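Hi L.,

You mentioned the student needs an example of a multi-chain input paired with its predicted structure. This one should do, with 458 residues in total across all chains.
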Amino acid sequence: MNTKQLTTPISFADLENLKAGDPVEISGTIYVGRDAVIPQVLQAVREGRLKEMGIDLEGGVIFHSAVSKAGLGPTSSNKVEIEGNMAELSDAGIRLHLGKGALSDKTVQILKEKRSIFVVIPPISAYLTKKTLKREVAAFEKEGMEAFWRLEVDRYPGIVAIAHGETIF
Amino acid sequence: MSISVNDIRKAASQALVIGSSTFRPDQIRAYERAIEKETDEKSRWVLEKTLENAAISEKDVSPLCDDTGIPHPFLEIGKDARYEGSVYDLLKAVEEGVADGLRELPGRPMAVKGEGLERMAQIHGLYEDSGKLLAAPVNIRKIDGSEIRVTVLMQGGGPEIRSKTYHVFHKHKEMQLIDTAVEWANEMVAKLGCTPCVPAIGIGRTHYEASSMMIEAQKEGNFDIQSDIENYITDKINKSDVGPLGLGGDVTALGTFLKIGEARGSGVRILCVRLSCCFEPRKHTVVLR
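Structure written out for the whole complex:
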């Protein structure tokens, strides 16, 4: 397979030639958040508090996962708090949403408008743990494994599932 | 010689750790057959990565999936088995062994603090101790012989979203039930994400019984031994073209585990369908003599 390398921060130009079905590998700093924390992150965005929290979402990746001593792996991205907030996260700078599961046609259109993409990643926790170089809580520590995490990753593998109005689903 | 309570505790711990970190030989063979069958290059890559992940897990004795799941223990007691203590002691040993196993694995620390509705709302957060996650009620069964068999089955959260237990008016046609199971599976499978799935299906007289049959189907299931009706279900789901990780392709279901329970004289049956994920069933049995 001809795999495209993506390193954060990701620009709009990086995504221009990607198509649904393309294999990618993601490296660099990424954020991790799921149902419990995404609404809290967006509240911080609305209140303009991200900078003081040391968080920069511009060109970013958000991986829909928990992070725990058991490792990490994608949760279902079609949960209400995740899929329903992709538009606002994209407005906040997220270019690549990373998770699993089919998303709605409405979301396909939203991601097209916002010029961000959805990549699915296999739930291969043991493998991903080996590809995770560094992990730290970025915010909302009280949520434990569901906090907002910052990771340094080396070539996380995935397949582009939604890009430019096209979808594999 | 009698089986000690400590042996039971160790068996429960060992069953949990091995079941959560290892693919069984029949499971590996099922993946090898799937890789051979899958014609889509990207989907084949997902299947190969899943096997690679299992090899890392087994070598490192680490979880196959970060959603290590809810432990479902089985305690099967032989007719002539001799053991120390009471049945209460055996059940306590299983619970303690499960907690030991969760700490050793380690399990995902996802036990929720608080009581009742506050626990539902998760307002007090989670315990950091993996061992705080209580097992589902222990299933106790009687068997022949002098053995005690301790099995732990780990049930992930994604498949619980893609599961359904409901009544079916079967019209006195058995295929009405089977085709309804296929219909439910095909409605849910694209949203599972962690395909290939393994449909676990139970049929019973009550919702409790149908769910129990579904759990037993997983405990007993072997990918090398598939009945005609299990193959029928697998083949029908594979026609959906959802494929591994939803990428399309030939392998949406790796196999099917079906257990049919008792029936009541009625036009209705209770059907339970759980779309287990690509790592399931995560299970192991320790036999004590």
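You could point out the following to them. The interface with chain B takes residues 1, 21, 23, 36, 65-66, 68-78, 99-102, 120, 122-127, 129-130, 142-146, 157, 159, 161, 168-169 of chain A (CB under 8 Å). The helical segments of chain A are 12-16, 38-46, 80-83, 86-91, 105-114, 125-130.

Best wishes,
N.
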